[in-house]
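Appendix B. Raw example, untouched.
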Amino acid sequence: MTLTLESMVPPGAIDRAWNEHRFNVRLVNPSNKRRFKIIVVGTGLAGASAAATLAELGYDVSVYTFHDSPRRAHSIAAQGGINAAKDYRNDGDSVFRLFYDTVKGGDFRSREANVYRLAQVSNEIIDQATAQGVPFAREYGGLLDNRSFGGAQVSRTFYARGQTGQQLLLGAYQALMRQVAAGKVQLNTRTEMLDVVTDGDGKAVGVVVRDLLTGEVRSVNAHAVVLATGGYSNVFYLSTNAKGSNATAIWRAHKRGAAFANPCFTQIHPTCIPQSDDTQSKLTLMSESLRNDGRIWVPLKAGDDRPPENIPEDERDYFLERRYPAFGNLVPRDVASRAAKAMIDENRGVGPRRNGVYLDFAESIKRLGQDVIRARYGNLFQMYERITGEDPYRVPMRIYPAPHYTMGGLWVDYNLMTTIDGLYAIGEANFSDHGANRLGASALMQGLADGYFILPVTIGDYLAPLLGKALTPTDDDAFLEAEAAVRARVTSYLNTEGDHSADWYHRELGKIMWEACGMARNASGLEHALQEIAKLHERFKTGVKVLGNGESLNQGLEKAGRVDDFFELAQLMCRDALHREESCGGHFREEHQTPDGEALRDDDNFSYVAAWEYTGAEPVLHKEELTFQHVRPTQRSYA
């Protein structure tokens, strides 16, 4: 097939585009909405909010999640907050400033119209969540409180201590379960989507799912399919993502014709607990909000192994404050991560493995008092102490960057529809808003904007002309062929008599990806990685060992399919990183940097979205040129 990238961005003034677009899209009469069936895959913030809102509007909604409860979705792990342009602090914030900060923070690699709409909708999200009872922090007088996050010089982040994602997810969950109780949403737990089904015209008409408890593979039809399945940071094996987070849904959609955009744009979060040993299977996020009151430093002298309390002030290097005085410790994540890596590379790392930098609260505790710090970050401090055995009220935290979020994802137009008609991708599953680097506290904003306010409007434009059209029956050849392919794939994993588990191969893949396609990349490393990944993938195909059977809960079998998809995605990520001969945001090519080690963009040749088409052989690159009419691309400076 030949892909056509039509962004569907409305013409005219950017500040009026969304409202005019809402007026111009086709509508579905309230009494007709129940005639349309919509499948939503995923129950995180984007999926739960979309399913609840679509059902509230009257659509017939079916939801699928591989978790035992929607509350298990990884959105629950988000800690620090959610951005909105309310300007409650009267510190100069506005919709345009949030838009500007987001485009600049993404290093000018995002679509302006989508980002402006996100900034516009942000205020509605706070109103919605507050009405649901989300317990945002409040000032003494009762007004909602704000704090600062990286890449901004205003305080626009709303928060619920260090568990904002959990509280927002509970709000979306209760809205979803209200519709389940009303019979408007059919909730299917412990069910994994393993393929998208398209008809002869290339339109999405349903999905193939597998019951993880019984192994039953079945087809489900619908008029439209929505993927809200999150990102793919677990391609690195060690990441802040939940162990079950995977790329299978979006990758299978990609193989059916959905373009994959900017796969190499991955984010490394600067404040995570450093890896403690070689057998570790997951990394733990420490909220970016901690950088409000914590100061990041390393010893001034290389190889200094003295305890932090024995290193005097004049022998410490507060390197972010030194290099970026205007933003200090609150520079964007890509900038902070690279600066920390530079310190480690200079042998100034701290901790048993010398793989961390200090995040020190001593000055803030002295200035504000321990009770204030405990009120702001108490649960985070407690979590850190439980994991490391160190009390951050007494000694500095040790932190180091780790894979966290993926800005790349399925390409979508302004309506959030992929290059497959009728297939939508929302939240972290799409590429649309963050460019080459996401600002902190913007993931929750995008997920809820897509689910509560954008998709419920735009999906009607696709559905309206389908009124009266019957669903494609599940005994149609398209469904039968997809089902047969899924069953054959599952069987192949069980029949392979190998020597290593899927987890072993995943760990080996992660090592290659972190070394070649992590915080720093170069042409020779990426070319070598492509060769090594292909070799390891071939070994996996004949050497993976899956115990048990396919008729009961078998997490080894689930993992085999997900790791298989990670292998293919990893190759596309490296290919994308290799072709993009520039540095921008989280994509840092060592060949392209300024004299002081900052990312050096090439706007003349790479100011586009790289959308890759799956062919079964060499992927084909398609380009959506980016135009900037309201924010002028410049060399980012946070000094």
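End of appendix B.
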